[in-house]
């Protein structure tokens, strides 16, 4: 949400120094502190004049008349959009840390997401939010039919997000008592048939979305396997219905204890309303964290919502930074951090983008 204010180079430097000092100290900033700690190469009177202009422009404000100034939401917006760039060095370090600590080969993708959320919360010091992949957008990676009992099999589907869905299916009755006896007496015959069926389904469905499962062309299935068609069709339809469940909006939350260290969250009632939102009202939060970034046209990968830019009342004093992770070019989930508006933005943005990139690479 760009703020239209024309600032001189000097006014930009004073705004940058003011925001940076306030982020570091959580104390209102006066001109004396900027003179002592930042090499702005101007007199204290000039700094006071610049701060006065920034206040009139709505970028700074005084919490009370005798205090220094602190950034407004609009001041932070100018700071984020025009005065900083995410730390590339930190992004590389975070990516390496994820690679070292998270084993994408042996972990389920959900476990990987939980691990990433915990690491990001510890590194950032903010609440971390990671959405589970949208399973209705996920595509089939592998399918297998495994015999459980003489007349019962399990149909197992693995998506490209490494999520697993399974459903039990009864085997059809043989055409005659003699064939039924032969089938029960020769489990290897049943196993061969189930493997052929698995191969057929993998050939037909690999790479297709789960929503396409019931539309399989059964005409290519040989006559000797037609008896399985109705059961498989019903089982695949059952799996598809499950993928449309509300679980697709689940958000993994980590780091609530981390954010309590910030003075902005010292009021018990405020943190309670935020925790209630995170635990009980994820359906409201989910559309806010998972959507196409508004800033993509500007070449930025992360979306930064500052203070009142957040639509939900409990977090209108917070900043939410999020970035989508993708399967190929399609966004399937999002990772973000939630903290005070007094945030180290260049680091937080870099960490969120690095986490999203790592998850995207893992999915591919």
From TrEMBL:
Keywords: Repressor, Stress response, Transcription, Transcription regulation. It comes from the Bacteria. Signal peptide: none annotated. It holds the Pfam family HrcA. The keyword Repressor applies. SUPFAM superfamilies: GAF domain-like, Winged helix' DNA-binding domain. Residues 110-349 form the Heat-inducible transcription repressor HrcA C-terminal domain. Gene3D superfamilies: 3.30.450.40, Heat-inducible transcription repressor hrca homolog, domain 3, Winged helix-like DNA-binding domain superfamily/Winged helix DNA-binding domain. Negative regulator of class I heat shock genes (grpE-dnaK-dnaJ and groELS operons). Prevents heat-shock induction of these operons. Belongs to the HrcA family. This is Heat-inducible transcription repressor HrcA. The gene is hrcA.
């Amino acid at each position: 949400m760009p703020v239209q204010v024309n600032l001189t180079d000097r006014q930009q430097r004073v705004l940058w120094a003011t925001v940076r000092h306030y982020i570091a100290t959580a104390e209102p900033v006066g001109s004396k502190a900027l003179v002592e700690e930042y090499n702005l190469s101007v007199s204290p009177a000039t700094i006071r004049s610049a701060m006065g202009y920034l206040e009139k422009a709505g970028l700074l404000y005084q919490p009370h008349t005798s205090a220094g100034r602190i950034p407004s939401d609009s001041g932070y917006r100018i700071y984020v959009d025009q005065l900083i760039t995410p730390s590339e060095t930190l992004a590389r370090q975070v990516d390496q840390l994820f690679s070292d600590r998270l084993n994408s080969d042996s972990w389920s993708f959900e476990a990987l997401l939980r691990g990433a959320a915990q690491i990001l919360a510890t590194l950032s010091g903010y609440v971390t939010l990671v959405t589970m992949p949208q399973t209705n957008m996920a595509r089939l990676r592998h399918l297998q039919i495994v015999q459980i009992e003489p007349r019962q099999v399990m149909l197992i589907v693995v998506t490209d997000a490494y999520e697993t869905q399974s459903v039990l299916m009864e085997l059809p009755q043989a055409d005659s008592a003699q064939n039924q006896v032969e089938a029960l007496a020769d489990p290897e015959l049943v196993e061969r048939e189930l493997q052929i069926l698995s191969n057929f389904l993998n050939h037909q469905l690999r790479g297709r979305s789960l929503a396409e499962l019931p539309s399989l062309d059964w005409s290519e299935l040989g006559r000797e396997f037609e008896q399985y068609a109705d059961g498989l069709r019903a089982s695949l339809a059952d799996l598809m219905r499950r993928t449309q469940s509300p679980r697709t909006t689940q958000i993994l939350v980590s780091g609530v204890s981390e954010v309590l260290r910030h003075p902005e969250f010292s009021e018990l009632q405020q943190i309670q309303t935020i925790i209630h939102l995170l635990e009980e009202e994820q359906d409201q939060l989910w559309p806010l964290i998972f959507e196409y970034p508004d800033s993509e046209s500007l070449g930025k990968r992360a979306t930064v919502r500052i203070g009142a830019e957040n639509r939900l009342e409990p977090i209108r004093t917070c900043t939410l930074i999020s970035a989508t992770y993708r399967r190929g070019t399609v966004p399937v989930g999002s990772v973000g951090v939630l903290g005070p508006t007094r945030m180290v933005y260049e680091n937080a943005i870099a960490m969120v983008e690095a986490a999203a990139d790592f998850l995207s690479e893992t999915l591919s």
